[in-house]
Amino acid sequence: MAGGRGDCLLGFDMFGGVVVNATTSATRWYHRQGRAAHSHLLFVVVHIRPFVLALAVPGYGWTAAALTYVLALVSAAAVIRSPRSIRTLVAFGAVVAGILVTTTLVTVPPFLMWFAPVLLIELLLGHLLPHPVRCGTRRGYR
């Protein structure tokens, strides 16, 4: 998988997920009225990509997978449980802390150093934070 088609597919999926989760339509869907906190946490729970990498990529171990996954879950729970007034700060702080931990405390193949930071950005910043939505205009932000 190193440097091959699998890396490209994983990268496309991950980077695409960051962008898609930050779109107006995704924000409207995932943050619509009546959505409970557990549905947001479930979205994070089903992102088992770290374990798929541990199975498929030599050098990406189970320790790295478990640490990345647990960091994402704990961080998501912290974001969801924080008051709305500081939710964005908690999410950004969790991403920065998670990047520090996943890039210094575990060994991963150099070609996958981007994985944990992008996963945390996708889930914590892209998915869990509602993004401004301007209704009734086609011009977007000014």
From TrEMBL:
<keyword id="KW-1133">Transmembrane helix</keyword>
<feature type="transmembrane region" description="Helical">
    <location>
        <begin position="111"/>
        <end position="129"/>
    </location>
</feature>
<keyword id="KW-0472">Membrane</keyword>
<feature type="transmembrane region" description="Helical">
    <location>
        <begin position="87"/>
        <end position="105"/>
    </location>
</feature>
<protein>
    <submittedName>
        <fullName>Uncharacterized protein</fullName>
    </submittedName>
</protein>
<feature type="transmembrane region" description="Helical">
    <location>
        <begin position="62"/>
        <end position="80"/>
    </location>
</feature>
<keyword id="KW-0812">Transmembrane</keyword>
